[in-house]
Amino acid sequence: MSASPRTRVLISGASIAGPALAHWLGRYGFEVTVVELAPALRGGGQNVDFRGRTHLTVLERMGVLEELRALDTGGSPLAFVDQEGRQLLHLPADFAGGELEIPRGELAQVLYRHGNSRAEYVFGDSVEALEETPSGVRVAFRRGAPREFDLVIGADGLHSTVRRLAFGPEQRFVRHLGYYAATWQLPNDDGLPVGGVGLNVPGRLMSVGADHRDPARAGAFCVFASPELRYDRHDIRQQKGLIRAAFAGLGWRVPQLLRSLDAAPELYFDSISRADVPSWSIGRVALLGDAACGATIGGMGTGTAVVAAYVLAGELALAGGDHRAAFARYEELLRGYARGCQKGGDRTGPFLAPRTATGLRVRNGLLNRRWVLNRMLELGKQVSSVELPDYPALLEARVSAAG
């Protein structure tokens, strides 16, 4: 199915949004290049989930739903305990895992496999400068030679380089929500079960659970309240020091988990923040996923990114080369939807690590009632659902009519 001329599109970022967009644009006949700073697809990371009919419909239209169902973890239950290990709250698997939960790295691999034959992937490089010309965008790269593209899409996350270069400095668009989060891997020497169990004290959560695929491995996850910190995002040693300082003096398994940081080969550490960009496009450059409307945790960012990629590609294909019309329609269809999903991210830090003992007691008291959990799950499905055009069918009908 080809519904566009060979428009050259550069996508910055190969996490989730980038490969999803590359899949659709390649399917519609665009000439796609994806550039990624990492030397290869990133593995690991937290499990990500999909919920509601919109998420599942888009995955089905991509042709990946059944493959992802085979990778479904079944969800990740989470128990909260006090410093003596006494259980305070138990959240069942379906609460955190939605209708479909997949390790983030495995999702990235599936999306890559389904689109890499129609796209050029360049790893170990990144965008350094953008210059819009009368006919396109001239892009300078950190390592590769400059190239010109018709369109550039920033799918490079909350700390987007494309957004900084085309729209302005990060501090204009990204707001700190008062918490930090981190994850890392460690050996499962204690035979921990799948899911997670975590110590909750005011303003702090430290949890650990077995890996869904490899019971010999475990994953640690922590959240702590803090004003905005100044640190080097590329200095893992410094970030480990911030985690140790935040959790010093706590009991339960915390000292053991902090010691495991020394041998952790990879660490994810970031603020819980959200991105709000007044317009998702400027000229021939547009933003996608977390770069446009991100929420670090709890904002249904993965599902929103996959849905947004579907809409952006569909509108570009329908517009027949008119990127201004396509970008405007893309934002018109999705801005309200994305904002609704983002609101969940605003509540993530206070939900996981309430700042006061009273806040902890209130949360535990409410969520120990199953009807409250059921209501929250239903609201999540409603928020994540939106009516969208059936772009493959529309474009197929157009091709048939032209033929």
From TrEMBL:
**Gene Ontology molecular function:** monooxygenase activity
Q: Which InterPro entries match?
A: FAD-bd, FAD/NAD-bd_sf, FAD_aromatic-hydroxylase
Q: Which domain of life is it from?
A: Bacteria
Q: Where is the FAD-binding domain?
A: 6-164
Whether Oxidoreductase counts among this entry's keywords is yes
Does the keyword Oxidoreductase belong to this entry? yes
Q: Pfam families per the record? A: FAD_binding_3
Keyword annotations from UniProtKB, A to Z? Monooxygenase, Oxidoreductase
What PANTHER family does this protein map onto? Answer: MONOOXYGENASE (PTHR46865:SF2), OXIDOREDUCTASE-RELATED (PTHR46865)
Q: What is this protein called?
A: FAD-dependent monooxygenase
Which species is listed as the source? Kitasatospora cathayae
Top-level taxonomy: Bacteria, Bacillati, Actinomycetota, Actinomycetes, Kitasatosporales
